[in-house]
Automatic annotation (TrEMBL):
Keywords: Membrane, Transmembrane, Transmembrane helix. InterPro entries: Beta-barrel_RND_2, MdtA-like_BSH, MFP. Residues 59-254 form the Multidrug resistance protein MdtA-like barrel-sandwich hybrid domain. It comes from Dyadobacter frigoris. This is HlyD family secretion protein. SUPFAM superfamilies: HlyD-like secretion proteins (SSF111369). GO terms for cellular component: membrane.
């Protein structure tokens, strides 16, 4: 009985010792973990309220029509200028041809007016020659009338002959005035045609503008990628009717890079400033760290940019810690951040006082 009792005592002591060692190791581990946690809390500010961001822009149609061909697939990488889809352009092509014909007609009107100006100028020149002849004839009739007037005073001619000379003088005056009026009318017609030319030139400019607009409409029927990126979800089909301004697809801009929007508590941002380096880790790639740099801090809390910002003057007041969005630019090489996607959750660590 004594031997068995000693064996039980030895076993209890061994178990007690092992338990004490295990408890000691656990206590030591918890102490180390607690110390590191307290160190991190003292040296760093961190938040898990952060997401990866990229520019995701809509691709919209500038003209309406039926889709003739779609040349991209969902999630397909594209380069700037790649054709995404083609809209049936036959109606716009007819409009362009009509505008071209109207422009040719307006230019033809200029040629007609130039020809009319030349004809009217020649008529004015002919009228100017007729004026000279009528002036000479008038001078001759004035001389004749003067002679007949003197001869009548000495009764060398009859009263009838004198009256005939007077009538011929009046006719010569009327002819001279008529040619003067005709010449002035010819000059006025030339001026009128020149004014019509200015109107026709303005019409040509208007027709050219209409033609340019029609050419733009034709070019808009080919929708291209505005920059290098990656296409989003495909929601359109061939033969579908679309309207001007309609969103056709979404493209993720890969030229502007990626960044993180981290929402820190208002009590944390006193240690942050522009240019400060940060450490980033994502839920999708645990253990892999990314480098970033603070580029800006929001001028207001996120709630102030909401559709219905809170108004603490209404109802009962409950104090809630607000968060400030902080924009962080990823500074790693593009090859390293290529696996990151917009909307991924991230954890951001900012060292205080750096």
């Amino acid at each position: 009985m004594g031997t068995e009792q000693n064996q039980f005592n030895n076993s209890d002591k061994l178990i007690t010792r092992i338990t004490a060692w295990i408890a000691g190791f656990i206590l030591l581990g918890l102490s180390v973990w607690g110390g590191l946690t307290l160190w991190d809390l003292w040296k760093y500010e961190e938040t898990e309220d952060a997401q990866i961001e990229e520019y995701i822009n809509p691709v919209t149609s500038r003209v309406g029509g039926f889709i003739r061909d779609i040349r991209y697939e969902e999630n397909q990488p594209v380069k700037k200028g790649d054709t995404l889809l083609i809209i049936d352009n036959r109606e716009y092509q007819l409009g362009q041809e009509e505008a071209e014909a109207a422009l040719l007609n307006a230019k033809a009107q200029i040629s007609v007016l130039k020809s009319t100006v030349e004809t009217s100028s020649k008529n004015a020149t002919v009228n100017e020659g007729q004026i000279a002849a009528a002036k000479a004839k008038l001078w001759h009739q004035e001389q004749e009338f003067a002679r007949y007037e003197k001869l009548l005073q000495v009764e060398a001619v009859t009263q009838q002959q004198f009256e005939n000379a007077k009538t011929a003088l009046e006719v010569a005056k009327a002819d001279y005035q008529s040619f003067l009026d005709t010449y002035q009318a010819s000059l006025s017609k030339v001026n009128d045609i020149k004014v019509q030319q200015e109107v026709a030139l303005a019409e040509i400019q208007r027709r050219e503008a209409i033609l340019d607009r029609n050419k733009l409409d034709v070019s808009y029927t080919v929708v291209t990628a505005p920059y290098d990126g990656k296409m989003g979800r495909k929601t359109i089909q061939n033969g579908q009717m679309i309207q001007a301004g309609q969103t056709l697809a979404y493209i993720v801009d890969q030229q502007e890079g990626k960044w993180v929007i981290a929402n820190f508590k208002e009590t944390q941002i006193r240690h942050m400033h522009t240019g400060q380096m940060v450490d980033i880790e994502t839920d999708a790639l645990p253990g892999e760290h990314f480098n970033g740099k603070i580029v800006s801090l929001s001028p207001a809390t996120g709630s102030r940019f909401s559709l219905l910002p809170p108004d603490n003057s209404t109802g009962n007041f409950v104090k809630i810690t607000q968060r400030i969005p902080v924009r962080i630019l990823l500074t790693d090489a593009k090859s390293k951040t290529e696996s990151l996607r917009a909307g991924m959750n991230a954890m951001v660590l900012v060292k205080k006082g750096v």
